[in-house]
Amino acid sequence: MKTGRGEKVGGAAALMVFCTFAMLAFSVLMLGAGAYKNIAGASRDGSDERLCLSYIWTTVKNNDEADGMYVGEYNGVSALFIDEVIGDTAYSTIIYHYDGWVFELFADSMYDFSLGEGARVIQADSLRFKESSEGGILATSGNVSVFIAPRGETAIPVEGGR
Question: Could you say which of 19, 79, 141, 152 has the lowest number of CB atoms within 10 Å?
Answer without folding.
Answer: 19
